[in-house]
Amino acid sequence: MLQKKQGIKSNQEWLAAFEKSTDLYSKEYINDLEKKTIEHIKKVSAGFNNICNGWIAGKDSVVLHHILKKSGIKSTPIMWRGINEYPCMIDWIEKNKPENLVEEVIDKFNFDFLEKNPTYLFMQGDTRQKWMSVKWRRQKADIKKHNFDLFIVARRLKDGNQCGLKTNDFVVDSKGYKTYSPLAEWNHEEMFAYIKYNKLELPPFYNFKRGFLVGSVAMGEWT
């Protein structure tokens, strides 16, 4: 079984886990996991008026959106992205993005900016943390701008994400709206098995040499 994402050093480990995921988990187990997740989503989302979910074209957000559609709750997908992107990803996103997707483009980190600030491309010291802080502030501002009161995200504990507490149903107060992580307790192999059993299409960057290591952090970080 794979450990937390931060401890995985080889892309081959990810590929091997993907291949053997359906040996570890039966279709019946995954169907039951989906059912329990949908029940939890319906319980938590009740009472909210304007719900959105994050979609950043990665495996977790693809799974989350698929489950949300099956749950029947009304949710608007929202995506933050940079203006620099691989052409194959631009094509895949255009063909596979959810209906009614709200796209918020982060335009600060264009090539002119990166030429003048190379540490944002070749991370050094605490540059990454400062960059991420800018992104999170923008995310919060956009959610409030669209008057969303519940933000459903595909964050998982196995990815080292802050998901809140199980005792609070993995719901966190984000000052003006609440953030909810229904997949918080899913491990990597459960995620992979769900993808395989449901025949979900993954974006092409997962076929890159270090695709699973790089991941799908939005707003231009694929570069």
Question: Can you walk through the features of this model?
Answer:
The chain is α/β, with parallel strands linked by helices and 223 residues long. Helix content is 43%, strand content 11%. The protein has 8 helices and 6 strands; from the N terminus they run H-H-E-H-E-H-E-H-H-E-E-E-H-H. It has helices at 11-24, 27-45, 59-71, 87-96, 111-116, 127-145, 188-197, 211-214, and strands at 51-54, 76-82, 102-106, 150-152, 171-173, 178-180. The chain has a 6-stranded mixed beta sheet with strand order 3-2-1-4-6-5, with helices on both faces. A hairpin with a 4-residue loop joins strand 5 and strand 6 (178-180). Helix 1 (11-24) crosses helix 7 (188-197) and helix 2 (27-45) packs across helix 7 (188-197). The chain starts with 10 loop residues before the first helix and ends in a 9-residue tail after the last helix. Mean pLDDT is 88; it is low at 218-223.
